[in-house]
Amino acid sequence: MRHPDPPASAAAVTVELDRASVEIDGRTIIAPTTLTLTERRIGIIGANGSGKSTFARLLNGLIVPSSGTVRVGGLDTAKEAARVRRMVGFVFQNPDNQIVFPIVAEDMAFGLKNSGLPKAEIPARVAAELSRLGIGHLAERASHSLSGGEKQLAALAAVLVMRPRLVVFDEPTTLLDLRNRNRIRAVIDALAESALVVTHDLDLVQSFERVLVIEDGRIAADDAPAAAIAWYRERAA
Ligand SMILES: Nc1ncnc2c1ncn2[C@@H]1O[C@H](COP(=O)(O)OP(=O)(O)OP(=O)(O)O)[C@@H](O)[C@H]1O
Asked: Which of 93, 159, 173, 221 can pair with 181 through a Cys bridge, CB separation 3.0 to 4.6 Å?
């Protein structure tokens, strides 16, 4: 499989849920939900335990629906898991869950080797991605020696180097100081890829195209950011 160069601003990936639900141990975590997402920047907000991470995990097949279907870019996540994983990158809240290899550049090269990219092209791809995130100087660093913010950026680089068409972020700024938070914000704003971001950082989603508020496993509000955030603030007051 070859990786085409992404266009400067790739077309949005369509996400379609058709009566998709998630039940765990007999408890409904996501109630049957029918929804189509076509925007390039989507925020997911809501209270602790409302189902945001579970919803996000549905999109790259980390969780498959208990009933109904989830399609991403036309692919059924339950039936075409491998292709869905290649299309949808997932950035975990805790980068320790994601970084596998001891050296930053090695960690990034691993997925590329498996994807069939010619070996000679790998170093340049890794370097370009690190430079895009402004962390070229971390290439040869031991992952365990990085600060929390550096690690978060390194984990993001390892996802982006695979050139997913949609990047799902699960609380990407929670561990970060203001400077690194701003950096992640700038990175998300500049992504050519589509992004769906689960967050408690309401400022982060203010510039997005669409924001969903999840409440008790249901989409309780679905609107432009200002209206969705206002709805959520009111609800939490
Ligand atoms: N594997 C699991 N087994 C049992 N319960 C689970 C599992 N995963 C999630 N849950 C439950 O589902 C509910 C929703 O969890 P989820 O992590 O999706 O919420 P969230 O909105 O992302 O929360 P937070 O903002 O606190 O991260 C919670 O009550 C959680 O305990």
From this structure: 173
Ligand 1 atom closest to 54 (CA): 18
Q: Calculate how far, in angstroms, residue 49's C-alpha sits from the geometric centre of ligand 1.
A: 5
Residue 170 lies in a domain: yes
Residue 234 pLDDT exceeds 60: yes
Q: Cα of 173 to ligand 1 centre, how many Å?
A: 19
Structure tokens at 201: 């950082």
pTM: 0.91
Whose CA is closest to atom 31 on ligand 1? 49
Counted domains in the chain? 1
d(Cα 32, Cα 49) in Å, to the nearest integer?
17
CB 164 within 8 A of CB 136: no
To test the ligand 1 pocket, which listed residue (21, 22, 24, 216) has its Cβ within 8 A of the most ligand atoms? 24
The crossing angle, in degrees rounded to 10, of helices 148-160 and 122-132 is 130
What pLDDT is stored for residue 8 in this prediction? 54
Q: Is 152 in the pocket of ligand 1 (CB under 6 A)?
A: no
Residue 1 lies in a domain: no
Please indicate, yes or no, if residue 89 is contained in any of the structural domains: yes
> How far is residue 146's CA from residue 175's CA, in Å, rounded to a whole number?
13
ipTM over 0.90 threshold: yes
Per-residue pLDDT of 17-67, as tens digits, reads 999 999 999 999 999 999 999 999 999 999 999 999 999 999 999 999 999
